[in-house]
Amino acid sequence: MTIPNGITGLTKGTRPRFPRARIIRVGEVVPTKSGKTRPKALDHFVSEDPAFREKYGRDPRELACHLPPIPTEDVLRSNLMAYRAGGLYCHGDGITAERRGPTGKFSPVKGGCPECPYNPETGKKAGTKECKAVGVLTVVLDDLPGIEGTQIWTSSKNGMIGIQSMITALASTGLPTWEIPCVLSVKMEKVSTPDGKGGRARRRLPILHLDAAIPMMQLVERAQERERMMLGRPTPPMLAGPGVDESHLLTDPVPRELYPDAIDVAPADDLAQMETYCVELGSERVGPGAVSKWTGKRSEDEIRAFLLREIETMGGQWP
């Protein structure tokens, strides 16, 4: 008997993941006079990667690149994301959400994004900015060796919409998107943002832009030529996108330029998750809907203290 090469589920039967070489940013965290930190927007790209700094210098504003050979819907990953000091804490698509529990595993959030108090659009705690709409773009830089991906994070809705629109436009040319030379740039633009007092304010913020590096007619000609050359040839295999379950998102450090105040403890009013955890532990005194029944009859501190005691009694741990 001959055992075939490969391990099912590991090296066989799955598509390989596209590798990542570095992260670049358009923001940094700087200290304040009070000893705290605050995010500072930049009008250029920065990275901790020595190869990037050596090639592009201190303040590059444009980068020649190609999109990676992955499905177009995975080139820009956008989700609502909440971070704690330990990393990604909760992520959702606006409807459903998953949150990291005390054991480190992610589980569905009851009520999903619409009922979450930290929903950046509708939540009662939206002002804390713990949860944000974040986009993670993956490109391959032309001027650095290797074919690994370079990722950049943005919380600009204008930037995410513009990039996703351009990716769709590039795909409509008929060429594989990874064959189209592109330019990734950052520009400081005035945008309307909430002022924290219920109104709007105009602020200058870094906005990412993605565009083709050659004219549209050249893209059309390339697509026509490629179609003639590829007649009868098989389509090359496509790599899988980063994907949240297999990507670096679960192990990456907190992007402090987006979440400068990320904390590592559960907020005092995060009682629904504590209730769920008690149910998972098999508590007979805390069942589904218990917190809702107690709300108004007991203070949040009393409910939290009771749930903590119950978790300890059942042998669990709460962060």
How would you describe this protein?
The chain is an alpha+beta fold and 319 residues long. The chain has 2 domains: 211 residues, no CATH class; 43 residues, no CATH class. 22% of the residues lie in helices and 29% in strands. It contains 7 helices and 11 strands. Strands 1, 2, 3, 4, 5, 6, 7, 8, 9, 10 and 11 form an 11-stranded mixed sheet that branches. Helix 5 runs parallel beside helix 7. The radius of gyration is 23 Å and the shape is globular. The chain starts with 19 loop residues before the first strand and ends in a 6-residue tail after the last helix.
Write the SSE topology:
Elements: E1 20-31, E2 37-47, H1 50-56, E3 62-66, H2 72-75, E4 76-84, E5 87-92, E6 97-100, E7 106-108, E8 131-141, E9 149-154, H3 157-171, E10 182-194, E11 200-212, H4 216-230, H5 271-281, H6 290-294, H7 300-313
Helix pairs in contact: 5-7
* Number of helical segments with 4 or more residues: 7
Mean pLDDT comes to 82
Please tally the β strands and state the result.
11
Specify the helix fraction band.
10-25%
* Gross morphology: globular
Spell out the helices and strands N to C.
EEHEHEEEEEEHEEHHHH
Can you summarize the main beta sheet?
Answer: 11 strands, mixed
Proportion of beta-strand residues: 25-35%
Gap between N and C termini, in Å? 51 Å
Low-pLDDT runs of 5+ residues are 264-269
What number of domains? Answer: 2
What's the Cα radius of gyration? Answer: 23 Å
Structural class: alpha+beta
